[in-house]
Amino acid sequence: MHFLFLVFTLVLGTNCQFSSGTQQLIVDIHNSLRSKVATGTYSINDTVKPTCSNMRKISWDSTLATSAQTYANTCPTTHSNSAGIGENLYMRMTTANIGGLDIYGGAAAVAWEQEFQKFGWATNYFDMNLFNTGVGNATQMAWAKTNLIGCGVKNCGKDASGMNRVAVVCHYKPLGNYLDQLVYVSGFTCSQCPTGTSCDQTTGLCIKERPKILNPSSSLQLFLFFFSAIKNTFRLEETMQTLWILSLVCLGAVFANFNEGGKQAIVNAHNNLRSKIAKGQYVAKGTKKETGSNMLKLKWDGSLESSAQGYANTCPTGHSTIPSIGENLYYYWSGSPITNLDQFGGMASAAWESEFQDYGWGSNKFTMSLANTGIGHATQMAWALTDKIGCGIKMCGPDASKGGMNRVAVVCHYKIQGNYLFKTIYNSGATCSACPSGTKCEQSSGLCA
């Protein structure tokens, strides 16, 4: 299959299995692609794929996760010979230290799907000609009969070239990429769901049938069911807020905030960068930074999340004027419909951090000269006295300035605000030697918590 090798800045750490949040993110990215294919909304270079009649919904499987982790632990350079299991591989290489492995689950899934966008999807008939175009990982993701996935990740350390390497392995059942078979069967969405499955109307995917505990005849009945369950539990104002959220669900409205896995991925990406700086392990475009003495650990903040989501909902094209709040913005455009928004939190964080790698980090004092090098997002991520973050996301729809491509906006808000002119981004010195009052050193990360 087609491998992706990228030079990327990673963070110090050890081998670990994916967290539950990252497991769900991997599943969501797969099912987002599969749902778009199933409903006839998946587009490649302005060509929309035909609807699919038999696309199953993928679920996480712990047995496959164990087999994938076992193979990842061997630091593979090629595919295993595991019988009856589909397998996707992804590798990233860097000269920096490695850690924070959760970020690579979503990155791997996104990279595999991008094979379709880079190399096309000329036919739905899987043969060596299609395989040799470089879409083998993507076709496994889209293989209609596959319904189970499990993945593993390994920090492989330095390879023969002296670069550090991360390996991601995902295993699938039933396996895909059978020669001379169809990736999926074209036809009306869900019209050929396999025996024992039924159509999930919201996604167009075939899901395993379950006993029905509650089957209200209408959205109003569902609404009243929840009302009766909570009316004696909460105060009136709390009840009305809960009912408002439930009414949005009943009426089919979209609630766009990041889920818990998406939030944690953002926090982890920030703290991984900050930990490397604090420990003196961060290399920005070939230059190793000094250790940090006062680097606070970031935590998610609900108030900042609300303000960030409120601004994201405006589909901004520039920064807000909200006082005393740091703000990072990220945009993503795609010619295909966008349904899974959680992946963009980690992508935004990675893009902001990469400013240090693209443009360097010439000084620890924040000046206009430094800001004008193009690293303002990265310096806010690294601002030592910032300890709170909250982010929002919005699918903004077609963007006329980009030829009608769909646009996603990500907004993150920070406190204490960073990027103050003529202030130091962090204080150099022994790790944790100048932790602010009320905090103490977290030995594992080198951050003040």
From TrEMBL:
The keyword Metal-binding does not apply. InterPro entries: CAP_dom, CAP_sf, CRISP-related, V5_allergen-like. Residues 21-180, 261-422 form the SCP domain. The keyword Iron does not apply. Keywords: Signal. Residues 1-16 form the signal peptide. This is SCP domain-containing protein.
